[in-house]
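Whiteboard transcription, Tuesday session. T.W. wrote the C-alpha cells on the left side:
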C-alpha cells in the first residue's frame, strides 16, 4: 500500500496494568520513508477494577474457555474505548494498531499470547485493526520482543539510546563496537514489581519513589537479585510475567521485611542493571519513557550509577505515550508492507513485516 499521509491510533496495555494507552498519531511518508510524525490526541483509560483483577489473575493455570472469553470480551471493551476516544476527540483515523495485553510470553517454547481480540476491536470501532505483532517473529525463531527498536531509531534517532521503564524495563541502542548493529533487549523488571510492593501499603504505585527513598538497601537481597542468571545472558533476550513470578519474586522476603526497604533495594537493583548497560556501551544520551521515568528516586539512582550518561526526560506526552506511538508506527509499516521486526534484536531468522490486519 502506498501512503503519503496516514493517521493511526496506537493502543498499548502494559504489564504494569496502569490502563489502556490510546494515542492518535499522524505520519507523513514519501517512498516508504518517514518524513514527519505527530501525536494528535492521547489519553490513558484506567482499567475498571473488574478488568484489572481479571487480567492480573490470568496465568498458566487459567482454563482455556475462561482465557478465550477474556480474549474476546477484552477486545470488545478495548474497541468501545477506541470508538469513544475517536468520537469524543472528533478524529478521523485510518486504522488502529493494538499491542494487546500479554498473558504468556514464552519464546523458548515457541509461543507468545497477547489477548484483546482485534476482530472485536475492529467491529466495535469501525476501524481496521492491526494486531498480533509478536507471533510471526516467534515462529521465525525470535524472541518476539522487543518490537519498539525500529520506532526508536526511526522516531528518536538523535539519542544514543531509548530506555522505557514500564512493567519491565527495556532499552535499544546502536552498539559502538564490532558490527555497530542495533541492540535491544529487556533489562530488568521494573514497575511490575515496584507497583506490587506499593500495593502492600495501599498505594497503586510508589509516587516519585518516596517510599523507596525512605527505606534502606538490603545488601544480601541486592546480591541475590544481581546473581540471577538472566543478567549474564547475551542478547537477544526478553522477560515476561512468568520469569518475574517464578525467578524474581520468590527472592523477596515479603513476610519479614518492610515495604520501604524492599522498594529501596529493588529500585537500586533496577538502576544498577540499567546503568551497567549504559556504562558498558558508552551511552551518552538516553531518552526516558514509561511510568518509571516519573520516579524521581529511580532517576537519581540511575544518574548515580551511570554518571557519564545524560538521562533525558522528554515531554509528558512522550513519556506517557511513546510505546503507543511506536505501535501506531508499527501498524503504519505493516500497512505499507515494510519490515517492522528486526532480526538483530529479536534473534529471528530474518527481518520481516509482522502483524495481521482485521477489517470491521
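and on the right, the sequence the group agreed on:
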Amino acid at each position: 500500500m502506498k501512503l503519503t499521509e496516514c493517521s493511526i491510533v496506537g493502543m498499548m496495555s502494559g504489564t504494569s496494568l496502569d490502563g489502556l494507552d490510546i494515542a492518535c498519531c499522524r505520519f507523513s511518508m514519501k517512498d516508504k520513508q518517514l518524513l514527519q510524525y505527530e501525536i494528535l490526541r492521547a489519553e490513558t483509560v484506567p482499567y475498571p477494577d473488574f478488568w484489572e483483577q481479571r487480567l492480573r489473575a490470568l496465568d498458566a493455570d487459567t482454563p482455556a474457555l475462561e482465557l478465550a472469553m477474556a480474549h474476546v470480551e477484552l477486545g470488545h471493551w478495548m474497541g468501545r474505548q477506541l470508538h469513544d476516544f475517536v468520537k469524543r476527540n472528533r478524529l478521523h483515523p485510518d486504522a488502529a494498531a493494538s499491542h494487546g495485553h500479554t498473558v504468556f510470553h514464552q519464546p523458548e517454547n515457541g509461543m507468545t499470547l497477547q489477548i484483546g481480540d482485534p476482530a472485536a476491536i475492529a467491529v466495535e470501532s469501525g476501524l481496521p485493526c492491526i494486531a498480533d505483532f509478536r507471533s510471526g517473529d516467534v515462529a521465525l525463531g525470535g524472541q518476539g520482543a522487543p518490537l519498539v527498536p525500529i520506532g526508536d531509531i526511526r522516531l528518536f534517532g538523535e539519542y544514543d539510546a531509548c530506555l522505557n521503564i514500564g512493567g519491565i524495563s527495556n532499552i535499544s541502542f546502536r552498539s559502538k563496537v564490532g558490527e555497530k548493529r542495533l541492540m535491544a533487549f529487556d533489562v530488568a523488571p521494573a514497575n511490575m514489581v515496584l507497583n506490587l510492593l506499593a500495593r502492600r501499603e495501599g498505594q497503586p504505585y510508589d509516587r516519585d519513589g518516596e517510599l523507596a527513598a525512605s527505606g534502606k538497601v538490603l545488601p544480601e537481597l541486592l546480591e541475590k537479585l544481581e546473581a540471577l542468571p538472566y543478567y549474564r545472558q547475551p542478547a537477544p533476550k526478553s522477560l515476561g510475567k512468568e520469569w518475574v513470578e517464578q525467578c524474581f519474586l520468590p527472592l523477596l522476603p515479603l513476610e519479614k521485611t518492610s515495604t520501604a526497604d524492599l522498594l529501596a533495594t529493588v529500585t537500586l537493583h533496577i538502576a544498577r542493571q540499567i546503568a551497567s548497560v549504559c556504562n558498558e556501551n558508552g551511552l551518552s544520551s538516553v531518552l526516558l519513557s514509561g511510568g518509571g521515568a516519573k520516579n524521581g528516586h529511580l532517576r537519581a539512582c540511575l544518574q548515580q550509577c551511570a554518571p557519564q550518561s545524560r538521562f533525558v526526560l522528554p515531554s509528558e506526552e512522550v513519556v506517557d505515550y511513546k510505546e503507543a506511538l511506536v505501535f501506531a508506527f508499527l501498524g503504519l509499516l505493516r500497512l505499507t508492507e515494510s519490515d517492522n521486526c528486526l532480526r538483530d534484536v529479536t534473534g529471528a531468522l530474518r527481518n520481516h513485516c509482522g502483524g495481521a490486519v482485521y477489517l470491521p
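Someone added at the bottom: The longest strand covers residues 33-45.
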